[in-house]
Amino acid sequence: MRSPAFSTYTALVALLIAVALSALPGIAVGQSCISDSVGKKVLFARPTITGAPPPGDVVSLMAEVQFAFEIERERRWIEQPTEPVAFLLCEEGGILGRQQWLQRVRDLYYDGVLLEVRSVLRFEGGDLGTEAMLQYALAPAGFFYTEGRAATDGIYGARVPTLKAGDYIAAFINPLEIDAFIALGLGVSYLDARQYDLAFSNLCRAIMHLRLLPSPGFTALLPPQQLALDKLKDFVKSELTRAIEAGLVESDGGTIAFLAETRGEEFATDPCLIEDADG
Amino acid sequence: MADAFLSRVELLDHSLRCAVLALAFAILDLSSARAGLVAECDEPMLFGGAAVNVVILPYTYLEARQAELSEPAQTVAMLLKLDILATARFGSLGVVRLKPSEDPKGCNPDLVLDRLRSGPLEGPFGTPAPGSGIVVLWGRFFESGESLYVQSYLSFFRHRAEESIPIGSDSERIGSVEARFPSQQFAFAPRAISFTAVEGLVGAFSQVNTVRQAPHYSAPPVDLDLGSGDLFAFSVQGAMGGWLELRSFGPQPSGFVRLGAETEWLLKQVFPELFFIDGLIGYLTLRARHDSELPQFSMPDHASTLIEKSLASYRNVIEPSKERLPAGLSYTIAAAANVLEARYGLDDPHEAYRAARGKLAEAVLLLPDVNEVLTFSALVDLADPSGAYDARAVERLLSRALVAAPRDALALSNLGRLYEEQARQSDTVLPYSRGELTARAQAVARLSTPASRLYAMTPSDIIGLDIINERGESMGVVDDVVTDVQRNNVYALVSVGGFLGIGAREIVLPFEQIQVTSENELLIAGMTYNDLSQLPEYEASSYRSVDPNRPIGRERSRQQD
Predict the structure, then answer these.
(1) How is A113-180 classified by DSSP, letter by letter?
(2) In B457-495, where does DSSP find H-type helix?
(3) A-chain residues near B484 (CB < 8 A)
(4) N or C, where is chain B less crowded by C-beta within 10 Å?
(5) How many Å from the N-terminal Cα to the C-terminal Cα in chain B?
(6) CA–CA separation, A75 vs A174, rounded Å?
(7) Cis before A214 (ω within 30)
(8) B529 inside 8 A of chain A by CB
(9) Is there a contact between B363 and B309 (Cβ–Cβ < 8 Å)?
(10) DSSP string of A183-223?
């Protein structure tokens, strides 16, 4: 159970990632963590604390969130993506907070980075606050690279109320956000590699999960977050269309062509065959 | 005291120690018994006569500074072991608690799993029978504030046997086909335990750490010091009124330990995984009873009902939407038990398949993007002896399985089989003519050809072949075919770079990325040399070699050999 001292303080999370990033301490430049690992990977860092945290609780709070992240890193036990994805604790940071983000995104993309996860905890001491929230932001590297859009377009934030002990830890357990964004990153990566059936499969999985966001336990999305999510959905749909078109043209007799032929009109309107997926 | 026994045992060399313990267990017939043991991670021993062995690794702290096991950590491991033994309902169960040896890394789960999967597993208690079940449980702790968090991991497989679920038979509508579980290794969600609950566990532990000559508190207690991790072997003679009767093999006293209903309730609220494990043990025991080389042993009638009851209890405690994989898996395990009971003639096939279909429908809701679940559900629909299946729905499920796993040979062959079967029937329920069905079956066959050809090849066929890009340039050479010890995925071990064999790196290339050309060349499309060299480097501890003469496709569903 959470220490009673905690209840006298309130932790609020920055609602906009821009606000959060402005409060981030200087991030060391370097790729040691990233380049030390080969293959597809997800970057995450210890949560950033802003505001005036209660001294006695900071260590405990960070440790708890860190535990949650560690659990995420162990998702190799939970999820079964089409290839292994490593979770890396990288203090030097990846995309978020970068000035030269486009070049950085490109470098990370070539390094196999699918997305970056960061959390920001903002404390407001005193008796004014009544809740604490954790923001869980994901930045799909492939999205930036492919679209060349502004960084904020690819950032999704989710808020977790932490009125009760362990609420935010519970929210890290098997969130659909991770499933969705790993599938998205893999889909984009396979599309680049012209492996259209694997791109198709992963983008379909991303669409399926994105439909269900935010995960159970997260609070409803604020308008900027909903806008970001909508943009991501549009992006995934356009990537899926690209994968299907290319798959039909370039891979004679492949899975995409087979499904297009056998599912006919249904495939044209719902290529992922998910419209009644939940019953 | 266990210390005394341990000191004597440790004075013996390994072979002599094995002989002593073998003698002790010679009188133990595990065909209908339960037994416990503490062994070292470096040399895991199992009960050869048991239908199922549950192996519990030390629960450790997440942070390195807490590498030493604390009292709660030891308490939990011991209680889990005794609870599994006490509540076992399916007979023929061995539970082994592993303790660290001199090498602190010896209890690394990956290493232990590798030993259990590939090692000879010869020990004083015999060698597990092929087809017998092995369940491995481990976990970690994290303390924060006034809470203790616990996360458990589980892996299960059958000793030297494939864990595929046979459905139907050659004489039935769909012939003999097989399904697979969506996963056989996964993490449960972390559980938070208040210190009050921990105190309750410690109190429970103090009870099970004491053996009495009679099953009541007035009997004189003798401290067993079970938490020390000493080598201690015993059989469970029975459970009565919350008391567990242990029969010791060694100088420790035999007698009764208290594991009352209140302790069991507390444990299962904190560790609903125990419900899951109980159901899983039931499934593996059912399987071992009919598909192993073990002598016949008795099992409760309608085991599938007991299995489902345990798994449903697990789901009732957790939030299935937050633990989709284990929750979905629990449905598939229960459905597999139904299907097996029908196959073994233990239940009315109509009833069994109806029950299985209901459970798999729930599994599909939880895991709508998992090929194995979609395929399992479709196959059980097809094999239902009532014949009351919706062919369109089955076709759609199999098509969705293809979306989830477009290169999966099993999904392809199942879809092709459906079209072939429908084309043979005079009154097809699919909205296609016989010609259209035949055309579809042929399209599936064409679709599956490249993958089928690749997966039909053996490692011996492809070792030494060049991996080429689309321009026909050599990118590397296949040195070996391996599977990863965690998931059994198949990889080509490819040597890249270097000159005349000097300075080359060995990377692991997922088989899904390889295509076989009409000239039987191995092509990786859309990958540059840089992409290839960025793939994970081979680490011997993470992979194992496969049978060089066995078709690679067979490795994909094989969990151990």
Answers:
(1) EEEEEEEEEEEE-SSS----EEEEEEEEHHHHHHH---GGGG-B--EEE-SSTTHHHHHHSS-HHHHH
(2) 459-462
(3) 84
(4) N
(5) 40
(6) 8
(7) yes
(8) no
(9) no
(10) HHHHHHHHHHTT-HHHHHHHHHHHHHHHTTPSPTTSPPPPH
A1 → closest Cβ in B147, B369, B404:
B147
Residue listed under structure tokens 């899975």: A255
| Tens of pLDDT, residues B297-306 | 888 888 999 9
Q: DSSP state, A46?
A: P
Contact A173 B189 (CB under 8 A): yes
Residue recorded with tokens 């009351």: B388
Stated pTM of the model: 0.76
Pick from B406, B341, B325, B421: nearest CA to B373: B325
Q: Are A117 and A42 in contact (CB under 8 A)?
A: yes
Omega prior to A216 cis, within 30 of 0: no
State the Cα angle at B78 between B75 and B83, rounded to 5°: 115
Secondary structure of residue B257 in the 3-state scheme: strand
Instruction: Quote the CA–CA distance of B435 and B412 in Å, as a whole number.
Output: 19
Q: Is residue B318 classed as helix, strand or coil in its secondary structure?
A: coil
**ipTM greater than cut 0.95:** no
Helix H or strand E encompassing B496: strand B490-496
Which percentage of chain A shows pLDDT scores above 70? 46
Q: How far apart are CA B547 and CA B543, in angstroms?
A: 13
User: What is the C-alpha end-to-end distance of chain A, expressed in Å?
Assistant: 38
Q: How far apart are CA B464 and CA B343, in angstroms?
A: 43
Structure tokens at B164: 């595929």
Task: Give the closest-approach CA distance of B463 to chain A in angstroms.
Answer: 22
- Across A216-238, average pLDDT: 83
* Contact indicator for A49, A123 with CB cutoff of 8 Å: yes
> Measured between beta carbons, which residues in chain A are less than 8 angstroms from residue B198?
none
pLDDT digits (tens, 9 = 90+) for A134-187: 555 566 666 665 655 554 566 677 666 554 445 555 555 567 788 888 888 889
Minimal C-alpha gap between B297 and chain A (Å): 34
Query: Residues of B with CB below 8 A from A3's CB?
Result: 145-146
Using an 8 Å CB-CB cutoff, list chain A residues near B512: 82-83, 198
Q: How far is it, in rounded angstroms, from Cα B494 to Cα B508?
A: 6
Q: Which residue shows structure tokens 């959060």? A: A20
CA-to-CA distance for B166 and B149, rounded, in angstroms? 39
Cα nearest neighbour of A253 on chain B: B447
Matching residue, tokens 């505001």 = A51
> What are residue A84's phi and psi, to 5 degrees?
-60, 140
The verdict on B110 touching A (C-beta cutoff 8 Å) is: no
Q: Do the Cβ atoms of A116 and A95 come closer than 8 Å?
A: yes
Indicate the DSSP class of residue B535.
S
Q: Which two tokens stand for residue B97?
A: 């608690």
* Amino acid symbol at B383: A
B-proximal residues of A, 8-37, CB under 8 Å? none
Alpha-carbon torsion angle A250, A255, A260, A262, nearest 10: 140
Nearest-Cα distance to chain B for A247, in Å, is: 12
The shortest C-alpha distance from A275 to chain B (Å) reads 11
> How far, in Å, CA of B212 to CA of B254, rounded?
8
Residue B396 region by backbone torsions, left for phi larger than 0, else alpha for psi between -120 and 50, else beta: alpha
How far does the CA of residue A70 sit from the closest CA of chain B (Å)? 9
Only one residue has tokens 């099993």, namely B410
If you search the block for the tokens 């490593």, which residue do you land on? A86
Cβ-Cβ contacts under 8 Å, A84 against chain B: 484, 536
Pick from B185, B202, B93: which is nearest to B137 by CA? Answer: B185
Taking a contact as any Cβ pair under 8 Å apart, which residues of chain B between 375 and 414 contact chain A?
396, 399-400, 402-407
